[in-house]
């Protein structure tokens, strides 16, 4: 059993775990596909996005997240035999500022913050995360973004930076719990680094559940919501 008293810090993946991004991504891509007369919809477009995103985020030097979204949009367009639309590309790159938080995010984070440092380890740029923090109405004690470390999870720089920051505050790796929805980007690297982890498997959500390394993931605890996590470890 994982108990909150055994940890001094709880770090979170943000998008998919705390921010409910998939419906917004699907809605944007569906509207675009309909406008272009393309029949591909829903999960197919979402997984096309996931494939493109995983490949683009491996490239070094790393792109800022709005550029990742621009490149994803262009690759999806090519996959659908469409010419990239610069107006739609720019609109897609700005969507993170409007992605909503899950209904249990704010209360769950505030409860955890009473007992531990709460951090964000996110494959995002600083400006987009700032908007998401406003949408969550929450201020993290620790923030590690892709923009800060110049890399994207599942690469380890996010985790290494968080471990170093927390060690500087007297919190060893053994007292960190990492929480994520993505098996590929969060649970598998946490396993490899010896960080205990909880998988929030949000119902009907798909991103990060497949691809390189996902099948190897071994969470210490599996739940379906942040509220369930708080209840289980408190």
Would you mind describing this structure in some detail?
- There is one protein chain.
- With 234 residues, the protein is α/β, with parallel strands linked by helices.
- The chain folds into two domains: 4-20 and 99-233, Rossmann fold (3-Layer(aba) Sandwich), CATH 3.40.50.1000; 22-98, DNA polymerase, domain 1 (Orthogonal Bundle), CATH 1.10.150.750.
- The protein has ten helices and six strands, in the order E-H-H-H-H-H-E-H-E-H-H-E-H-E-E-H.
- The chain has helices at 22-35, 42-56, 65-79, 86-93, 105-113, 126-136, 146-149, 157-168, 183-193, 226-233, and strands at 9-12, 117-122, 142-145, 176-180, 196-200, 221-223.
- A six-stranded parallel β-sheet has the order 3-2-1-4-5-6, sandwiched between helices.
- Strand 2, helix 6 and strand 3 (142-145) form a beta-alpha-beta unit.
- The longest helix is centred in the N-terminal third of the chain and has 15 residues, at 42-56.
- The model has no long low-confidence stretch (mean pLDDT 97).
Fourth CATH level, the homologous superfamily of the largest domain: HAD superfamily/HAD-like
Query: Residue share in helices?
Result: 40-55%
Query: How would you sum up the major sheet?
Result: 6 strands, parallel
Spatial sequence of strands, sheet with the most strands:
3-2-1-4-5-6
CATH class of the largest domain: Alpha Beta
Q: Would you list the SSEs in sequence order as H and E?
A: EHHHHHEHEHHEHEEH
The counted number of beta strands is 6
Distance between the termini: 11 Å
What is the CATH T-level topology of the largest domain? Rossmann fold
Q: Count the domains.
A: 2
- What overall form do the CA principal axes indicate? globular
- SSE class: alpha/beta
Q: What would CATH call the architecture of the largest domain?
A: 3-Layer(aba) Sandwich
- Specify the number of helices: 10
Assess the beta-strand content as a share of residues: 5-15%
Low-confidence stretches: none
Mean pLDDT, rounded to whole units? Answer: 97
Protein name: Haloacid dehalogenase
Organism: Phyllobacterium endophyticum
GO molecular function: hydrolase activity
Pfam families: Hydrolase
């Amino acid at each position: 059993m994982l108990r909150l008293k055994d940890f001094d810090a709880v770090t979170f993946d943000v998008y998919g775990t705390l921010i409910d991004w998939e419906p917004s991504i699907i809605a944007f891509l569906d509207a675009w596909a309909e406008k272009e007369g393309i029949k591909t919809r829903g999960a197919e477009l979402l997984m096309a996005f996931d494939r493109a995103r995983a490949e683009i985020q491996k490239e070094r030097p790393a792109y800022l997240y709005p550029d990742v979204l621009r490149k994803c949009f262009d690759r999806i367009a090519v996959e659908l035999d469409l010419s990239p639309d610069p107006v739609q590309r720019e609109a897609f790159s700005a969507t993170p500022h409007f992605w909503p938080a899950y209904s249990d995010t704010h209360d769950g984070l505030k409860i955890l913050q009473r007992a531990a440092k709460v951090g964000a380890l996110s494959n995002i740029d600083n400006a987009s995360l700032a908007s998401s923090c406003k949408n969550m109405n929450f201020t993290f004690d620790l923030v590690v973004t892709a923009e800060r470390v110049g890399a994207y999870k599942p690469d380890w720089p996010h985790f290494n930076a968080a471990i170093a920051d927390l060690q500087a505050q007297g919190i060893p790796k053994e007292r960190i719990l990492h929480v994520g929805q993505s098996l590929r980007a969060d649970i598998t690297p946490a396993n490899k680094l010896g960080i205990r982890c909880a998988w929030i498997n949000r119902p009907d959500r798909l991103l990060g559940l497949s691809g390189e390394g996902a099948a190897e993931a071994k969470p210490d605890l599996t739940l379906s919501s942040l509220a369930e996590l708080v209840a289980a470890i408190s």
